[in-house]
UniProtKB/TrEMBL annotation, chain A:
The chain crosses the membrane at residues 39-60, 107-129, 138-159, 171-192, 226-250, 274-296. The lineage of its organism: Bacteria, Bacillati, Bacillota, Bacilli, Bacillales. It comes from Neobacillus citreus. It comes from the Bacteria. Belongs to the binding-protein-dependent transport system permease family. PROSITE patterns: ABC_TM1. It is found in: Cell membrane. One of its GO terms (cellular component) is plasma membrane. InterPro entries: MetI-like, MetI-like_sf. The keyword Transmembrane applies. This is Carbohydrate ABC transporter permease.
Length: 311, 365
């Protein structure tokens, strides 16, 4: 078809006096949508949306039920006594409020971990992008290899290493590995090499600013968009990690929320009341994540273009 | 001026402070990288070639490590459970990765098409599962798989089906469903970002040429988002090889899942249930090698010149000068600067990295 397509339109173009500069591509393309295609496409999107919502809808319903009603009534609709508040209260008070502790641990691991990981990745990425030194390619190549190494492949030997250092079953055992993000450094390098202004750095040097001061006052500010992306990636990565805390931690008090909820779920066979604790706990822990993801969604887009463009 | 040129040596002579600076900046990252990547990888390699002999009847006189050659690798690969788990992951990857990549590409194209209503709303909604930890996603889906608790099973039964989501033959696909649910929206977002970076003139030119929406998708959008598709596929392959949380959690409700269901699960079992660190390390090395080989094989496969370019060369040969002239006039008059023949040219998408700002603005618009 291509050759016809190439020749046909040459005459047609002159007849269309559309001012292409005043309207965006999307607006322009909106002009040629038909009601039929709109109904079909939106219909497909709605059906797919139902698929993504089913588990979350189910847990909202399930968290309002008593254990008995959970099995006796239709899972897709409310039934029995409305027990949401007593379930939630159970979640927060069970075992001396250990649920709150798990949430706090997760906030600590992912908050502290992501802030420091972003800072280290920014410093390293900037150094690799803007300085020329011996071994630069070797360092970058090695770190890039780290992006492809499955996290779980290093977790096992890391456990053995940490156990000889006496670090297992401490906060450090989960926190230290969370401070390193090869992918974050990769993004920072790409971004710094393209957007940090070398002339500005020279100017600062002439004004007598030290190298570290230049990094902290000028470079970090110019890299902010990339830093936000790396930070969010790292928060989600640490928050969702299961394998690392599972092998490192034995003490329940150090568990992040993922491990804690799994611990509750594993007991449902023996003690059915754990169904209510698990569904209630899942609901409470998922709501802030879902809100955060929807609000922060636009920050992922830009950052991912960086990765995908260069990948 | 080119901001890409690194090094201040070119303009001023580097002072000793400037020579030290990159290493000071890199130091914290490198120290942690060595501690959490290099040393574990080296020690895993070392462990994988070592075997431990326990002294005394019950090992009470301590343990002695000795060089074991490839014994651990032989043990690992002769373990029927482990090799079966590798085969299972290959099957899983061959089915789940393409399904997910095709699904997220279609979703991205639909969301970016003119016919989609409320694209921002749907985009956020599809991305949402990415924020739900894999553990919690698995807990939720496991409740939806268990008969008696699951309204889905009840619904299907009332229609006369007898679904068994946790049986030996089906549980692998139940896991695939959880993975697909979690990551489709995330991959879709990468592709949407790449689609948004296609300049409007390209669509304009295609429309002038009389291309319908399907032709635009197939001949313009898909070739141009190829880098994003490669990236998401490579990450999905690595993710597949790492599969652990989903089968481990489902194993309590699905007896078909044994402790060697995935390669990672097998390594975990060997290390923590049997204390066979040598064999476990050998298995971890095999998993990492497999991830490398598959990723590089896929990259090598896709780094050949894109099909359209090869086709175009053939076509240009066949149609001779006439076609070439037509292409040229079209290119220059349609956009002024960007020849339309560059549609399949990857360099148009690989340049211009700092798109963060403009992109996030585009999202608000």
């Amino acid at each position: 078809m291509t050759s016809e397509a190439i020749e046909a339109p040459v005459t047609k173009r002159a007849a269309e006096p559309v001012d292409t500069t005043s309207i965006t591509a999307h607006q322009r393309r909106k002009l040629d949508r038909t009601p039929a295609s709109q109904i079909v496409v939106t219909g497909i999107l709605v059906i797919v949306a139902v698929y993504f919502l089913v588990p979350l809808y189910w847990v909202v319903i399930a968290a309002t039920k008593t254990t008995g009603a959970l099995f006796a009534t239709n899972g897709f609709w409310f039934g029995g006594e409305f027990a949401l508040f007593s379930n939630i209260q159970q979640v927060f008070t069970y075992d001396g409020g250990i649920f709150v502790r798990w949430i706090a641990n997760s906030v600590l691991y992912s908050g502290v971990g992501a802030v420091l990981a972003t800072y280290f990745a920014a410093a390293g990425g900037y150094a690799l992008a803007k300085y020329e030194f011996r071994g630069r390619q070797l360092v970058f190549g090695t770190i890039l290899g780290g992006v492809l190494v499955p996290g779980t492949a290093t977790a096992l030997p890391l456990f053995l290493l940490f156990s000889t250092m006496g670090l297992t079953d401490t906060y450090w055992s989960v926190l230290i590995p969370s401070l390193v993000s090869p992918f974050g450094l990769f993004l920072c390098r790409v971004y710094a090499s393209a957007s940090v202004d070398t002339a500005l750095l020279e100017q600062a040097r002439i004004d007598g600013a030290g190298e570290l001061r230049i990094f902290h006052t000028i470079v970090l500010r110019q890299m902010t968009p990339a830093l936000v992306t790396v930070f969010l990636f790292q928060v989600v990565g640490i928050w969702n990690n299961f394998f690392l805390p599972l092998i490192m931690l034995a003490d329940q008090k150090l568990y992040p929320i993922t491990l804690g909820l799994n611990n509750w779920r594993a007991q449902v066979d023996r003690l059915p009341e754990f169904y209510q604790l698990t569904t209630g706990g899942v609901l409470v822990s998922v709501i802030p994540l879902v809100i955060a993801i929807i609000v922060l969604q636009r920050f992922w887009r830009g950052g991912l273009t960086e990765g995908s463009v260069k990948g | 001026m080119s901001t890409n040129t690194p090094g201040f040596r070119t303009s001023t002579k580097a002072t000793s402070a400037q020579k030290r600076a990159p290493w000071i900046l890199l130091a914290p990252f490198l120290a942690l990288f060595v501690l959490t990547f290099i040393i574990p990888i080296i020690s895993a390699l070392f462990q994988s070639f070592t075997t431990v002999d326990r002294q005394g009847l019950f090992g009470e006189d301590g343990v002695v490590g000795r060089f074991a050659g490839f014994d651990n690798y032989v043990t690992a690969l002769q373990d029927a459970g482990f090799t079966a788990s590798i085969g299972r992951m290959l099957l899983f990857g061959i089915v789940q990765v393409p399904v997910m990549i095709i699904a997220c590409t279609i979703l991205a194209l639909l969301l970016e098409s003119a016919s989609a209503r409320w694209p921002g709303f749907f985009r956020a909604l599809y991305f949402m599962p990415y924020g739900v930890p894999g553990v919690i996603a698995t807990i939720l889906w496991s409740f939806l798989y268990v008969p008696g608790l699951s309204p889905i099973v009840a619904l299907l039964q009332s229609w006369g089906f007898a679904p068994d989501f946790l049986g030996a033959g089906s549980v692998l696909w139940s896991i695939a469903n959880i993975v697909t649910w979690t990551y489709t929206g995330y991959n879709m977002l990468i592709i949407v970002a790449q689609l948004k970076s296609i300049p409007g003139e390209v669509y304009e030119a295609a429309k002038m040429d009389g291309a319908g929406p399907f032709q635009v998708a197939w001949r313009i959008q898909i070739p141009l988002i190829a880098p994003a598709l490669v990236l998401t596929t490579v990450f999905s392959i690595i993710g597949t090889l790492q599969l652990f949380a989903e089968p481990q959690i489902l194993s309590t409700v699905a007896p078909a899942i044994d402790t060697e269901y995935t390669p990672n699960y097998a390594a975990y079992t060997n290390a923590f249930a049997f204390n066979e660190y040598g064999v476990a390390s050998a298995q971890a090395v095999i998993i990492a090698l497999a991830a490398f080989i598959l990723s590089f094989a896929f990259l090598a496969l896709t780094n050949r010149p894109p099909k359209n370019e090869r086709d175009q060369k053939k076509r240009a040969k066949r149609d001779g000068l006439e076609a070439r002239r037509a292409l040229q006039t079209r290119g220059t008059s349609a956009t002024g600067s960007r020849p339309a023949t560059g549609v399949a040219n990857r360099s148009t998408t690989t340049g211009a990295a700092p798109r963060l700002q403009s992109d996030s603005k585009g999202a608000e618009a």
